[in-house]
Specification:
It is a single chain. With 103 residues, this protein is α+β, with helices and mostly antiparallel strands. The chain has one domain. It is 39% helix and 29% strand. The protein has three helices and six strands. A four-stranded antiparallel β-sheet has the order 3-4-5-6. Strands 1-2 form a two-stranded antiparallel ribbon. The protein starts with a strand and ends with a helix. The relative contact order is 0.18.
């Protein structure tokens, strides 16, 4: 389950994922934030079997997508990586995009 809200003072989005997945929450809040274009790029990559595996590095995280799973790695300290089914990641991205487009 994903809960998204916007900080009215800063305008930044905040994610809460249950069951807890702090690294994925941090990834959404730092790498995706309001970048609908990045969401569309990631969706395109998953639909093209020749584009996977795909890796992208942002400000604080590295994301790897394979045909079956996602892997997020922290470029700094703390929790170092998380992984899960690609379908789960894409569902969360879809919810994030829906929030941005319909807020």
């Amino acid at each position: 389950m994903l809960i998204i809200d916007r900080n009215t003072e800063t305008g930044l989005l905040h994610a809460k994922i249950m069951p807890e997945n702090k690294l994925l929450e941090d990834f959404l809040q730092t790498e995706i934030q309001q970048d609908i274009t990045l969401i569309h790029l990631l969706k395109q990559k998953t639909f093209d079997p020749h584009a996977l595996p795909f890796e992208i590095t942002g400000n604080a995280h590295s994301l790897t997508l394979t045909k079956d799973e996602y892997l997020i790695s922290s470029l700094y300290g703390g929790e170092h990586c998380c992984r899960g089914p690609l379908t789960e990641f894409m569902d969360i991205l879809q919810q994030w995009a829906y929030f941005l487009e319909n807020e």
